[in-house]
Amino acid sequence: MMNAKHLLEQLRDIVGRDHLLTDDQAMQGLLSDWRNRYHGQARCVVSPADTAAVAAVVRACAAHHAPIVPQGGNTGLCGAATPSIIGDAVLLSLARLRRVREVDAANGTITVEAGCLLQQVRDAAAQVGRLFPLSLASEGSCQIGGNLSTNAGGVQVLRYGNARELTLGLEVVLASGEVWHGLRGLRKDNTGYDLKQLFIGAEGTLGVITAAVLKLFPLPGDTATAWLAIASPTAAVQLLGKLQDRFGASLTACELVSDIALRLVRDHLPGPHPQLTDSRWHLLIELTGGGGELRQALTDFLAPELDADLVADAVLAHSQQQARRLWALRENIGPAEKSAGPSVKHDISLPISRIADFVDRADQRLIERFPDCRIVAFGHVGDGNLHYNVYPSGNPEICQTAQEIVNQMVYDLIDELGGSFSAEHGVGQLKRHELLRYKSPLEIELMRGIKSLLDPRGLMNPGKIL
Fold first, then answer.
1. Residues 205/459, Cβ–Cβ less than 8 Å
2. I want to staple 79 with a disulfide (CB 3.0 to 4.6 A). Which of 38, 117, 328, 340 is the partner?
3. Distance (Å, rounded) from C-alpha 239 to C-alpha 305?
4. What is the 3-state secondary structure of 282-327?
5. Checking DSSP bridges between strand 281-289 and strand 251-258, what pairing results, if any?
6. What's the CA gap between 395 and 403, in Å, rounded?
7. Under a CB-based contact definition with an 8 Å cutoff, are residues 381 and 254 in contact?
8. What global pTM score does this model have?
9. Can you tell me the mean pLDDT for 320-336?
10. Banded pLDDT at 291 (limits 50, 70, 90)
11. Cα–Cα dist 175/359, whole Å
């Protein structure tokens, strides 16, 4: 049985009085998700300073059968870092684990603690002339532990891969309070099961990531950025293939943006915004390399595509400032959507060859069912990840009631086309039912077996994923 007073005293002894919150008002900002969709309660918020303290907190919670909800920057979109309304959980904040433990430029690695902001990791790499390529719009507030726990993707997956592919080693506090020391900076280590892969993307349900060894890359010496006006997702896929044939690994990003998504940014976020040709669809592309002539090469590539009408217009950035302004249009779609009101959001992935088919068929079905709906589509066409968000009506109540219908229409089509209902945001609370609906019974059984082995009491982030 849990002795609540005794548990709080133990936690206070571990982290210090200033780093244990029990007052409802003091905890309030940490008990809702970024989208303000989920609201929970917690017994307390505890903020340990290092891995040893995290382990001590977990052992104390395990002894009292207290659920643990790990939380990073709380920027997730699926409610994975929000406790339930029961109020018996301990919210474990990783915010104080902010050390960059080591930068090994010769090995191309950086070892950081889970509470480091993504921007902090990128800056530390840049200081030694290296690149950590994971890049998200929230990089100034999201933490690397959360990025790994959700297997974050971002805009450069096309070139560098997602968080899973950028991770060489992990340090993890298990549900027992034991620490798995897996911080190895090896690119080849064929010694049995690759245990780190269990914890990446597990959203804190198997253990608490406290540190990671991450891959670094050379800083690009040259960058070319362009915004293209195109007719359709079909044109986007055709251009992607041509860009890959011409530029290979130098193609770092290829982002699809619909006219409605672009209009939201212009309507809801302050300008001035770049002057762009009106078009139903847009493509933001970026090349990086060391040759120093990428912009001219991109200009030469685009000229025949403009003549052939595959590209209606192209705006090439002449400076880093202009490139940042183009990227701001893409990166601010999320905040603009939040300002525009509630929508039914989908973070999906497809074989690249099926993207255009999905958009055409999903648009048609949804407009037939909800004639007044607005569809905001954008995403990383280079790796098949689309954000396909639906405003069924201007009425928030209709949006809420239509959510289940919209989700099933979208996810059934995704399943038919061989895609996934979650590409880079995880499952959390939001998509637990979809996991059961679209994963096979064998996959669910295997997942539950792993969960039972590593967390037999079910104390690690309960109610998430499974």
1. no
2. 38
3. 9
4. EEEEEEEECCCCHHHHHHHHHHHHHHCCCCCEEEECCCHHHHHHHH
5. antiparallel
6. 13
7. yes
8. 0.93
9. 94
10. low
11. 42
